[in-house]
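Good day; I would like, with your permission, to put a structural problem before you. What I wish to show you is a protein chain and, alongside it, a tokenised description of its three-dimensional fold. Please examine both parts with care and let me know of anything in them that strikes you as inconsistent. Thank you for your consideration; the sequence and its tokens are set out here:

***
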Amino acid sequence: MPAEVALAAARDSDAPVESRFRLAGPCVTSSCGFWTGEHCGLGARMAASYAETAELGQEQLPKCAIRRTCRWFAEQGPAACPACSHVVTDAR
């Protein structure tokens, strides 16, 4: 989706920004409580949790703007992608 179209759609929506865009910052490794010393423990837990409930045959990965720089994808592979959508982005 071109940026202009995405921004226009975002302006026209009352939904919170977290439900319209996927935002990600750089991994801070040892400065994060989920860092195991070798990998992201949260990404591993999310991928493992999703694997228990995944539908068989779901092989197509969703579109993702951050996949090429995503630590979860780099460490967990395609199993991280469906798990990502289960992350709560606003706990209000």
Observations:
- The helical segments are 3-11, 17-20, 41-53, 71-76, 80-84.
- The mean pLDDT is 79.
- The chain has one domain: 3-84.
- Residues 3-84 form one domain.
